[in-house]
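Interim report, section 4.2 (structural modelling).
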Amino acid sequence: MLAELINPYYLQVASFVLINIILGISVYIPLSTGQLSLASAGFMGMGAYTSALLTIHFELPIVLGIIAGTLVAGIMGVLIGIPTLRLQGVYLAIVTLGFGEVIRVLFVNWESLTKGSVGLSGIPHMGREILASLREFGFNPQSLGLQNNQFIFLTIFFLLLVITAFIIWFFRRQHSSRVGRAFAAIKLDEKAAESMGINITYYKVLAFAQGAVIAGFAGALYAHVLAYISPADFAYHRAVEILVFTVFGGSEVIWGPVFGSLFLTLMPEVLRFISEYRYMLYGLIIIIMMAVRPQGLIDVHLLELLKSKTAKRRQKYGAGNQKSM
Amino acid sequence: MLIEQLINGLTLGSIYAIVALGFTLVFGVLGIINMAHGEIFMFGAFIGVILTTSLQAPLWVAFMSAIVITAMMGFLLEKFALRPLRNKQGVSHLAPLISTIGVSILLENLSHHLFGAGNHPFRASFAQISFEIGSVTIYLVQLVIFVISVILMMALSFWLGKTKAGKALRATAENLETASLLGVDTKRIITMTVIIASAMGGIAGILVGMAFNSVTPQMGLSMGLKGLAIIILGGMGNVKGAMAGGLILGLAETFIVVYGDSGYRDAIAFLAIIIILLIRPQGLFGQKISA
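Predicted structure of the assembly:
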């Protein structure tokens, strides 16, 4: 019964949704301090290549590879973030876009290491490695009534789900902390924030580096979920795609990129005929959203509205707990 | 050899300069980076290819059509992607940038569907005509491109500097509100700027088609990114800086292919802007703005 329900294809799509959610958050965090970073694809590529190369050549465990990939992307984020702080708005967007391009050109041309545009294959697969190590302890997926394949994709999915949930939880906590308030203040007015004693340099670099870390982390996960990466995976189109997730879903609250990634990753899967026109549709979505609803579908106002509606319903029926949110 | 490479570099650089001028005009007047400029440029190139090869039209017809169509695209871009964002409350200054990224994605994929993903050769009848001065071979195409570019740049400089419309444009670039108080129809000037910039992109597209004998849907992106790099190099909104920056980049790229590794050709532009922004953020020819 369970075995028929678990379709590896759906699980694969669901895993990509989760990775895209993480990527969407990596654009949202710098944007919450008013910095538009288009380098997410580049950082993602750095994370992916670092982890993949380390696990292939040095047979490092995947966990260490992912940590290394995340760290490399984060360090690069700090290195890029400090000088680019001098840049405002559009300049930052161009430099980050340029950074992504430089990274891509590097991946294509450094053939001795990255195998050029052919890409890296044979990257250790996360699910298979987990299965292999569980086998050593005498575990067999058949005992759960699952095929190997189903078990592999199921573990990946749940692992990613836990990771994504943790990331969302972390940034929601951060949003209502001192750091989150500093971010919001900087986004509203940098000068005013500075005059209130907020160290803008620190917080802007922090936001930028956090975005880089998250993107590198998502990239490393991507490499070990797909087991194959090539420079084309981290090109300009990826950067724009990640940006669209956030622009469409909303850049004011974390649920915006989450919703945007979920919706836009599922849409071409559900509506097959759309997938050919996907990028054209992305373009249209961006133009229309900017003209009609530049803050994205989900904003603070909408969330308040939803909250007050559910609160009213609770009062009406007298059910639920009366604790205030 | 050296002189031939110099000529190659100047040809490439003068095309870059025209592309960058389109960026710089829009940025100067609107303070917006038009990310769709590269794609409009690419459409210009495609119109040239299709008219000269499929319809066997003469080159000047191709030029005229490319100018008209890209100018129309500029008008539509302004009307649908930029104007709705102007004077709207609570719109972040990044909104127009993101909106033009949307236009660029739309146009690039539209051209995939319209023209196919492959490479289109550009068959200009005089492409192979060359003559030799001493030991140096010069292709007629290169000369034509260079002359057209120089004429365009001179015409633009004259128009901006001496005519009434050009002065109005500069006034708008200086300060939109003051210009409109002084009786400049800023709405018209803005539309006109975007149209002129787009038409220049279209011309550059045909020139590139002639120079490199190939047109693909991806060329818009790489050219657009280089145009961005050039205007940062030359100083944002600076017309002379865009021309000089284009020539510098063209020469630099040509010489890295000859003396260095051709694979890194596309990365030079960005390495250059990253360095420029760190050392001299106002660009090579820009003036320091006090914050």
